[in-house]
Amino acid sequence: MTPLILLTLVLVWQAVLVGYTFTLAGNAADEGVRAGTAVAPGERSGVCREAALRDLPDAWRGGAGVECGGSGFVTADVSLRVPVLFPGLIGFPATVKGHAGAVEEVKH
């Protein structure tokens, strides 16, 4: 019975890591697009990327991909690798994606 309990705990822990990665990707995209809407289009990509990566834990930041763009309607897409059991060691080849969009702020 013990191996079955251990296997169940491992699977539950892996499911928690997948869910947490989805949460991190969505939040990072939100932060990136929020920062990207407040700057000029020429500065948007760098500011958006920096804001998206700022609050990510180190284990997820290494393989993160961030794309920002748009004019008028700014978008941010964040891709994160899901770790296998222990964050920071190895990750699944598949990625989790977060997407966010917001209308560009108009400065008067």
Descriptive notes:
This protein has 108 residues and is α+β, with helices and mostly antiparallel strands. It contains three helices and three strands. A three-stranded antiparallel sheet has the order 1-2-3. Strand 2 and strand 3 form a beta hairpin. Helix 1 packs antiparallel against helix 2. The N and C termini lie far apart (68 Å). This is Pilus assembly protein. It comes from Streptomyces pyxinicus.
Give short descriptive properties of this protein.
108 residues, alpha+beta, 3-stranded antiparallel beta sheet, Pilus assembly protein
Produce the secondary structure layout:
Blueprint: H1 2-36, H2 44-54, H3 58-61, E1 65-69, E2 73-83, E3 91-103
Antiparallel strand pairs: 1-2, 2-3
What's the short version?
This protein is α+β, with helices and mostly antiparallel strands and 108 residues long. The chain has helices at 2-36, 44-54, 58-61, and strands at 65-69, 73-83, 91-103.
Task: Tell me the fraction of residues in β-strands, as a range.
Answer: 25-35%
- Any idea what the radius of gyration is? 17 Å
The rough form would be described as: elongated
Distance, first to last CA: 68 Å
Mean pLDDT: 87
**Helical amount among residues, as a percent range?**
40-55%
Organism: Streptomyces pyxinicus
Protein name: Pilus assembly protein
